[in-house]
Write a structure and sequence with these properties.
Blueprint (H helix, E strand, L loop, with lengths): L3 H15 L4 E5 L9 E8 L10 E3 L2 E2 L5 E5 L28 E6 L3 E2 L2 E3 L3 E4 L4 E7 L19 H11 L3 H15 L18 E7 L4 E8 L6 E7 L5 E4 L16 E3 L5 H5 L12 H5 L11 H17 L21 E2 L7 H8 L46 E9 L5 H4 L1 E6 L8 E5 L22 H11 L4 H31 L9 H32 L19 H6 L20 H11 L1 H23 L6 H4 L1
Antiparallel strand pairs: 1-2, 1-14, 2-17, 3-8, 4-7, 5-6, 8-9, 10-11, 11-12, 12-13, 13-15, 14-16, 17-18, 18-19
Helix pairs in contact: 2-3, 9-11, 10-11
């Protein structure tokens, strides 16, 4: 039989498929509208609360022979308690120092950086985005009995930002440390039933000149690591959605490909690759693409569809097939595409808010979207049902924060690195240029936040209140939200242009005095506070405007929109009261006739429903017929 521990692991897996699954988008400098490098990260939280704080870790000098502790971090507040790391991580009240897994030699000087779950951006415009990925080898921390690894990806990103002025240095630092001290995924669960779907990590690591995509997983037996890195072409866009994307690698070309010393030998040793059967393919060798015994469709569709969405958006001329999904043994989609237009920040924020609108998979359409076109699908863990019965979009209900980080090499570091940041669900947040590579402060509303306690002093709660409000009447309310997003984010773009022009006047030879940094700090804090205030105003506006199912615009008459006609037809409204009412003598004899006329008039609506049902049946037949094809078993 299936034991309780296994079923519990499946429940976590099912939740993780919707929530613990971040998305990365990265854009090379020749593909953007202004020559900057851009990376996107959506932090889609797992089954725990998250520490919402943005924390600035300062630059420091260290004595010769110093040792750096490697901490075991947590998801909920406080993610880290460590007096030696930053003021924001010093113990408060009865908090105790986070567990230390080991120490590594410290360097003489470490750089300042912005930190959350993972290191975000340092003072030299090195920036990182993350996506948890699958692998065939689990690993566990040294704090667990039998565990052999010291580093999870969170501390690896932080060490890299502490020590590196370039993306290439960060790749090599993460690779070297994980190989020497061991890598483990803190989402892999327990040793009895490890969650291979969460057994590894992928990073987009960028600076002012380039982007590298890096896969990191455990080495054989859970010791050391196996890793691969591929440089993104400067004129291209790439996406990672919880699945590996690096395939064949020319390791004789270190300007494009890098990997651990054991990258090929371990695959042969473990039986993952036979050199006589063809070239080495990293994803084919090491990616775990789902426990097919559970019927899970997170692989291939929960991963592959997001990859298709981003690549198809930028290169529609490739006519990529959305049905292919993501599978380990063959490439469904290219590593990257050359966009058919220059990429903008506005475009990237729009993609973070995407529910496949305007595609055949539009989550605002169909019966599951309810009467008001709501794309939100809550996590479902009911036993015996598929774990992924709906599409998994880029914008998901459990996103904790998301950002577009930008590095600009023609500007001084103090001004060149900027982050457009939003807390909460992407579709209901407002992105604000809240921090620069050089600044050290953010508004308290981005720091004093707990998911377990409602607070009007917290940016996350403003977004979360709006996100929950729009569930009431999504089709109408989201238009109010989008209008404010356009207004405020448009204002922010103009604000940045003016602020940076003013700050540049204080800089010489690409070096800026403290006065320029203080100008950036003061202005960005005030601007972010203004945006948070505006977002709270929007929340209360929605409460008043859409109360009680009405739409109220000022005093006087109110709109009574009710339900859409098609929804009434399929929900039983048109059939009421049916045989639940016995008409008394004298009841108007034309009532039945009126009902008949009503049904006849709306036959087109019923016919549309029948077409949808017929299409679903035809689709099921099609997929059964393709069961013997290359992708049939995955789709059927």
């Amino acid at each position: 039989g299936i034991n309780a521990e296994y079923m519990g692991s499946l429940a976590v897996l099912f939740y993780a498929e919707l929530c613990s699954a971040c998305t990365i988008i990265a854009v090379g400098k020749k593909a953007t509208i202004d020559g900057s490098v851009m990376i996107v990260h959506t932090d889609d939280s797992g089954p725990n609360t998250d520490d919402l704080r943005l924390v600035r870790v300062p630059a420091r000098d260290w004595p010769e022979g110093a040792r750096r502790p490697v901490y075991k971090l947590d998801d909920p507040y406080p993610r880290l308690v460590a007096a030696d790391r930053a003021d924001g991580y010093k113990p408060v009240g009865n908090q105790t120092t986070s567990p230390i897994l080991g120490h590594i030699p410290q360097v003489r000087h470490t750089y300042a950086y912005w930190d959350q779950d993972y290191g975000l951006m340092n003072e030299h415009q090195v920036m990182i985005a993350e996506s948890t990925t699958s692998a065939k080898i689990p690993s566990f921390p040294v704090s667990m009995e039998g565990g052999k690894a010291m580093f999870a990806i969170d501390e690896l990103t932080k060490v890299a930002l502490e020590r590196c002025r370039t993306a290439l240095c960060a790749v090599q630092t993460i690779g070297n440390l994980s190989s020497e001290y061991g890598f483990f995924s803190d989402a892999v669960g327990n040793m009895t039933v490890p969650l291979l779907v969460d057994a590894s990590e992928t990073l987009a690591i960028a600076d002012t000149e380039e982007v590298w995509v890096m896969h990191v997983m455990a080495g054989p037996g859970g010791e050391g690591s196996i890793w691969a890195a591929q440089r993104l072409d400067d004129n291209a866009v790439t996406v990672v959605a919880n699945g590996y994307t690096i395939r064949q690698m020319d390791l004789d070309d270190p300007k494009r490909f890098l990997g651990s010393a054991n990258i090929r030998s371990a695959a042969v040793e473990l039986g993952f690759w036979n050199p006589e059967e063809g070239p080495f393919d990293f994803s084919a060798a090491y990616m775990f693409d789902g426990d097919k015994a559970t019927g899970s469709l997170f692989f291939p569709l929960g991963v592959g569809r997001r990859v298709w969405r981003v690549l198809d958006h930028f290169a529609p001329w490739l006519h990529l097939d959305p049905r292919l999904g993501s599978v380990s043994d063959r490439p469904s989609y290219p590593f990257s595409v050359v966009p058919d237009h220059p990429v903008t920040v506005e475009e990237l924020t729009s993609l973070m808010r995407d529910h496949y609108e305007g595609t055949p998979f539009d989550m605002t359409k169909g019966f599951a979207a309810g009467p008001f076109g709501n794309p939100t699908i809550w996590a479902t863990t009911r036993a015996g049902l598929p774990s992924l019965g709906y599409e998994r979009p880029i914008s998901v209900f459990c996103t904790t924060f998301s950002f577009v980080a930008i590095a600009r090499g023609w500007l001084p570091n103090e001004i060149g690195g900027v982050v457009w940041y939003g807390q909460g669900v992407a579709s209901s947040t407002v992105y604000v240029p809240v921090l620069y590579a050089s600044t050290s402060v953010v508004p308290r509303s981005y720091v004093d936040c707990l998911q377990s306690e409602f607070s009007m002093e917290c940016s996350w709660w403003a977004t979360t209140l709006i996100g929950n409000m729009v569930q009431l009447r999504y089709d109408a309310m989201i238009e109010d939200v989008r209008a404010e997003q356009r207004r405020l984010e448009g204002e922010s773009a103009k604000f940045l242009q003016a602020l940076e022009a003013k700050a540049l006047k204080l800089c010489h030879n690409k070096r800026c005095p403290r006065e320029a940094v203080e100008l950036l700090e003061k202005a960005t804090v005030e601007h972010a506070e203004y945006n948070v205030e505006q977002w709270w105003n929007l929340a209360w506006h929605l409460v008043a405007k859409y109360a009680n199912g009405f739409i109220t615009n000022g005093e006087g008459a109110i709109e009574k929109p009710g339900y859409p006609r098609d929804w009434l037809l399929i929900s039983g409204f048109a059939d009421y009261p049916g045989d639940t009412f016995i008409r008394p003598p004298g009841f108007p004899s034309d009532a039945a006739q009126q009902l008949g006329e009503h049904v006849a008039q709306n036959w087109v609506g019923y016919g549309s429903l029948l077409v949808v049902i017929a299409g679903a049946v035809a689709g099921a037949v099609y997929y059964r017929r393709t069961a013997g094809s290359a992708y049939g078993p995955l789709l059927g």
